[in-house]
Amino acid sequence: MSKQYTVVVVGMGKRGKHHAAAFNSNPRFKVVGICDIVQAALDAAAPTLGNPRTSTDAAALAKELKPDVFCFCTMPHLRTPMLRAGIEAGAKLIAFEKPVALTSDEAIVLRSMIQKAGVKAVVSHQHRYGVHYRKVKEICASGALGRIHTVYGTATGWMTHMLSHMIDYARWYAGEPVAQWAMAQAAGKSKFTDNHPSPDFISGIVQFAGDIRGYFESGAGAPDQPEVAKWWGKNRIGAQGTEGFAEVLTNGGWRAVTKSGGYQSGEGAMNYDLDMPPYIQEMADWLDGTKVHSCNFDNAYAGAEIMLALQRSAAEGGQIALPLTGGADEQSLLKARISDKTVLVSSPVNKKEFGLA
Question: What's residue 298's pLDDT?
Fold first, then answer.
């Protein structure tokens, strides 16, 4: 019988419960502990997960149980202490939510901690397991688009929630090219007080190796996708080549036009019940040594550098060379430089979420 790996999950909010349930449903894992600062959340979740140990102290719980996998689904400002707790508990694999970090100062520290500890790490860009996302990847990888020269991602959701997703999947479609530089503009300050602090709108250009250009938008100024009803699902990610294009809508399926195949389309929508199981299974595969996880930290870090370079450009002006050679506090830089002017929305559908309705 294959080894069963023990898991501690920190955070019993929506995403933490998704992770815990998916671990619990996979026979390769056993949830031995859960943590949240709210005892009532633990009391509600524990019976659905086989009644594991519960605690409001993540580091103490991990130190006691010494799990193979330490998974934390907490707010972005808690990355460093949570990663440290997992490493000090001796976890073999640490999984956490996107984005990698709020600043390049912290991202560099996290990367150093992971490399020094020799621990495997995974960042949750799990949309890529959706059948519609995978269909677009299949088309891109098949050569049906010819030479891919452009990738793009737009999301009406604000940056710290959505931009790393857009970058991750666009890079995936292009074959994960190395970024060379980034340049961006940003507007609006209302979402800096959100638990995923962000400018209200950021839009930028990324130059990748192989003469591939990337275009990214996130927030109030990003375009509506009228084919999609769910506001958080109005995301469009795609690739253009010399012989066609293919793109996915998070909650609106996929579509493509190729020289040989003409117009094609199919259904698909983000579904945690379908997307989480393969994301979790790849953790077992990586721990077994049979496959590197698709959402591995190194890949996520490459996307994080792009996201942070876009922010740095919006704050400082001009192009930012990649990879980054030093850290900065991009959040502070942006807040200091962005105008106090109210953001202008691209569509009335964005007004409510940005307090303008």
Answer: 98
- The class (CATH top level) of 130-270+304-337 is alpha beta
Q: What is the layout of strands, in order, in the sheet containing 120-124?
A: 53-55, 29-35, 5-10, 69-72, 93-97, 120-124
Amino acid residing at 126: Q
**Would you state the pLDDT for residue 1?**
56
Give the residue from 166, 219, 165 showing the smallest Cα distance to 191.
219
Name the average pLDDT for the chain.
97
Coil, strand, or helix at residue 338? coil
User: Can you tell me which residue has the tokens 């050569």?
Assistant: 143
> What's the pLDDT tens digit per position in 1-24?
589 999 999 999 999 999 999 999
**Three-state DSSP state, 336:** helix
- Determine the distance from the C-alpha atom of residue 286 to the mean position of all C-alpha atoms in its chain, rounded to a whole number: 19
What does the pLDDT look like over 43-86, one tens digit per residue? 999 999 999 999 999 999 999 999 999 999 999 999 999 999 99
Task: Reply yes or no on whether the pLDDT at 150 is more than 80.
Answer: yes
CA dist., res. 99 & res. 225, Å (int): 24
d(CA 231, CA 216): 18
Spell out the domain ranges in the chain. 5-126+273-295, 130-270+304-337
DSSP 3-state of 227 = coil
Q: How far apart are CA 305 and CA 77, in angstroms?
A: 17
Question: What are the two backbone dihedrals, phi and then psi, of residue 35, each rounded to the nearest 5 degrees?
Answer: -140, 145
134, exposed or middle or buried, with CB in 10 Å at 0-12, 13-18, 19+?
A: middle
Query: Which residues, at least 6 apart from 193, have a Cβ–Cβ distance to it below 8 Å?
Result: none
Pairing of strands 53-55, 69-72: unpaired
Q: Output helix, strand, coil percentages for the chain, rounded to the nearest 5.
A: 40, 25, 35
Q: For domain 5-126+273-295, which architecture applies? A: 3-Layer(aba) Sandwich (3.40)
- Contact between residue 240 and residue 170 where contact means Cβ atoms under 8 Å apart: no
